[in-house]
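Hi U.,

Before I forget, here's the chain from the pilot set. I'm dumping it here mostly so it's searchable later in email.
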Amino acid sequence: MLDKTAKAIFGTPGSIDPAKLFKMPLPMQAEGVRLLFEMGQSVDQVRARLGLSVAQVRALAQAEGIFSRGGEGIGKEFE
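Structure:
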């Protein structure tokens, strides 16, 4: 049985696979890192899960940008 405190609206930390995450565009990688924090993970837990340094985790968490696909823009609004 899954511990209710471990599950968030977007899944569990284990559902974010580093191999797949780092094949995605940078804005989506950043969102994956932010989701881990929203799931209650600490910086050390995120770092260990993704195999990154603390500085790399923080840089990804702060990364901004627009992911676009086929005319769609996901991210910051166009100015």
